[in-house]
User: Fold this.
Amino acid sequence: MLRRVLFLLAALITCYGLWWLFLRSAERQILAAQETFIEALEEHDWEKVSLMLAPDFVGPQGLNAQTAMPELQKALGGFVTLDIEAQDPTVQASPKLGVSSQRIKIIGLGSSFAIAVRERANQLETPWLLHWRKTGFWPWDWELTQAHNDSL
Assistant:
């Protein structure tokens, strides 16, 4: 009896693992990549943020992959505590491309510049559009190709 229970448990775990690795929708994969990206920003993990930006990344006000990193570090580096909330995210995706749309709310304490960044970001009325591209076989192989907000 114990063998059957253990075998059934192992089979269930294997099925869930296979589903998680290969059968999750592109929309769910993009939301997971976005969550990883936001967590890296919150933790000031600039290496991970840099790795998630596509080489051809295009950001607000003409930023590219090289110029975006110093600007992100300048804007978010002054936070002692930082929590970034993606509010009401929606995703449209195909197997290799996707766009997520959400309003971003920043909660945190830090330098006076950081507080000014927080206030400006929280005043934006239009949602952020994040464009994602799948670069590999694994479900976590998504990179950010474009970030855009019409209010900037």
